[in-house]
Amino acid sequence: MTAYVPIVKSRSAAADRAFNLVTAGAAWLVLILLGATAASMAWGGRLAFEKFGLGFITSMNWDAVGGDFGALVPIYGTIVTSIIALVIAVPVSLGIALFLTDIAPRWIRGPIGIAVELLAAIPSIIYGMWGLFVFAPFMALHIDPWLSDTLGTLPVIGAVFTGPPIGIGMLTAGIVLGIMVIPFIAAVARDVFNAVPPPLKESAVALGSTRWEVLSRVTLPYARSAIIGAVFLGLGRALGETMAVTFVLGNAHDLSISLLMPSNSIAAAIANEFTEADSELYRSALIALAFLLFVVTFIVLSAAKLLLMRINRAHGRTH
Amino acid sequence: MRAVLVRRRIVDAIAFLFAIAATLFGLFWLFWILWTTLANGFGALNLALFTEMTPPPGSSGGLLNAFYGSIVMIGLAVFIGAPLGVAAGTYLAEHGRYSRLASIVSFLNDVLLSAPSIVIGLFVYELVVRTSGHFSGYAGALALAMILLPIIVRTSDEALRLVPDQMREAAFALGIPRWRVTAQILYKAAMTAILTGVLLGVARIAGETAPLLFTALNNQFWSSSLSAPLANVPVVIFQYAMSPYDEWHALAWAGALVLTLFVLGLNLVVRLLARRASK
Questions:
Q1: Which long-range contacts (CB under 8 A, 24 or more apart) does B270-279 make?
Q2: Do the Cβ atoms of B69 and B226 come closer than 8 Å?
Q3: What is the pLDDT of residues A153-207, one digit of tens each?
Q4: Nearest to A272, CA basis, from A77, A37, A135
Q5: What's the CA gap between A239 and A230, in Å, rounded?
Q6: CB atoms within 10 A of CB A133
Q7: Can you tell me the distance from the alpha carbon of A314 to that of A203, in angstroms, rounded to the nearest whole number?
Q8: CB contact under 8 A, B175 and A10
Q9: Which of A185, A275, A279, A181 is nearest to A228 (CA)?
């Protein structure tokens, strides 16, 4: 680890300084843009924050005509759909990562890895269209009625699974989100699994461990923090995802315990309503929502990055 | 003893089957979504798509103005975002490699990389649309550039780090000034990888919808002015898909097909090129 400082002072020291300045300026720009985004959201949302204070987060009113706005329903919808997404995506992603690192024959790893990456490359609006035209009707026809008839009849949790079979709602949105974040978590988890030093795994195998025991007792404990980081990365994506959710969530400002009911999310509310917001306060309330979303995703993604940095450092990478 | 062994084997087999099932589950959605897009898109594909403007509700037409707007905005976004991104990446990998600023930027750049794009759209709205008083293609291009920037920063940083240190040492030993080492030797060595990053960035911003909703908005008519609302493929797809008209649905599917083929094709080409280069 040597710093590359030229020993001989070159004649073009001025050019060197200029080049240094330009690149450092571009690096500063990244910080400035991030800071300016946060500041601009806080500034744009100030009307709503001033008028409603903390009540903005706890109120479930969303009355554009009367000028009374509360963020509880979009916050609730964002959290619920993201949880559904993670419940689906985490086990599946870990399974894919395990398949790609330890189970699949070598020749098949490349193509399947690329296929998973292509899943990540599909624009979210395509997920949204597919969700609206294909998946929501499928849910309405097959899954929703079945859930209502089986889980919906149970005493306590029944309310969570009863509702009209319209296919549009938190469950559908959560599933689409889950499909979207699978490739993100799977790709990072695969790299994390690959970063586990082979001697650790080999020793376990030499002691007679099965593949499952290698995974559960060596790989996962060793990579635990990085795996959590990968999950947080997926969570950050799920929280802020807009188009895929907007299509299938239904844009309803009602708080409902049932997963089959339409709801709203922060990003979907902004996408649906911002261009139609006809008063300063309405716009401000939506920007205040964006501020909350930005702060929360910033924290989640920073945590993800910190958790992932540890294994990268152990692995000898600098970033 | 034997029972324990059998149980361990069974648990292992279950884990093994679960991993295969999980992979099939992931691929299943990829194929279902691709199949839907292909089946609906090809049905709606015709020559008018590339020669006619977006139609009024209930009649047929094409997406020419939307394709044009998307291409112009992506081009402008690359023009703004790529040089800045490569410069910042150069700072992270070369000129500020061990500096505090570089590690902070590197960290926050990754956060920006996954930040919700709708927030970036709102930021550009506040910055450009509100101050200028109208939606515009410039605002859309700026929003796309802001999404492109962290991608290019990350990929060019990584591209430059892959250049072996011996090359830097050899150049310094010849007394070449630092900036010329970077500009004439390192960029050349890392060019393929940097371009790969730019192409992947283009594939990413081509489908971005949320940041364009409040910046470029949409325009039903032909407009080549960047200071007016500009039609673009993602927002047209969004509006048409959400509409109740069958003709608009068909156009949305056709647009979705072209967009998907473009994005996936670019991804495949880039990955194949990168693999060949690394061999």
A1: B270/B196, B270/B199, B270/B200, B270/B203, B271/A114, B271/A117, B273/B192, B273/B196, B274/B192, B274/B193, B274/B196, B277/B192, B277/B193
A2: no
A3: 887 788 888 888 888 999 999 999 999 999 999 999 999 998 889 899 999 999 9
A4: A77
A5: 14
A6: 17
A7: 19
A8: yes
A9: A185
The Cα–Cα gap between A167 and B60 comes to 29
Mean local confidence (pLDDT), A43-48: 93
Instruction: Say which residues have a Cβ less than 8 Å from residue A119's Cβ, sequence separation at least 6.
Output: A179, A182, A183, B26, B27, B29, B30
CB–CB contact A98 B15 (8 Å): yes
User: CA–CA distance from A291 to each of A36, A39, A42, B125 (Å)?
Assistant: 12, 9, 6, 14
Q: A250 at the B interface (CB within 8 A)?
A: no
Q: Do A294 and B25 touch (CB under 8 A)?
A: no
Give CA–CA dist B125/B143, Å, rounded.
9
| Cβ–Cβ under 8 Å, residues B54 and B236 | yes
Residue B235 in 3-state DSSP? Answer: helix
CA distances in angstroms from A238 to A45, A108, A142, A184, listed in the order given: 23, 29, 25, 10
Q: List phi, psi (to 5°) of A119.
A: -60, -35
- Of A27, A115, A267, Cβ closest to residue B101: A27
A248/A133 Cα distance (integer angstroms): 9
Nearest CA in chain B to A267: B118
What are the structure tokens assigned to A66, written together?
A: 């009367």
Residue A209 to residue A190: CA distance in whole angstroms: 21
ipTM: 0.92
- How far from the centroid of its chain's Cα atoms is residue A176's Cα? 12
Reported pTM: 0.92
**Chain B contact for A27, CB < 8 A?**
yes
Between chains, do B123 and A123 touch, taking CB under 8 Å as contact? no
Residue B118 corresponds to which tokens in the numbers above?
């709708």
Q: How far is the C-alpha of B179 from the C-alpha of A11, rounded, in Å?
A: 12
Q: Can you give the pLDDT at residue A318? A: 38
Model confidence at A316: pLDDT above 50 = no
Identity of residue B261: L
> Among A119, A66, A106, which Cα is nearest to A237's?
A119
Spatial separation of the C-alpha atoms in residues B87 and B152, rounded to whole Å = 9
* Residue A131: C-alpha distances to residues A9, A244, A272, A283 (Å): 62, 7, 17, 28
Q: Dmax of chain A from CA atoms?
A: 83
Which of A180, A96, A133, A189 has its CA nearest to residue B30?
Answer: A180
| Tens digit of each residue's pLDDT (9 = 90 or more) over B51-78 | 888 888 878 888 999 999 999 999 999 9
Distance CA B131, CA B125 (A): 9
Identify the closest residue of chain B to A245 by CA–CA distance: B210
Q: Which residues fall within 8 angstroms of residue B195, CB to CB, at 6 or more apart?
A: none
CA-to-CA distance for A89 and A84, rounded, in angstroms?
9
Contact A23 B153 (CB under 8 A): no
Question: In terms of Cα–Cα distance, which of A87, A117, A129, A33 is closest to B150?
Answer: A33
Please tell me if residue B80 touches chain A, with a CB cutoff of 8 Å. Answer: no
List, for residues B195-205, the tens digit of each pLDDT value.
Answer: 999 999 999 99
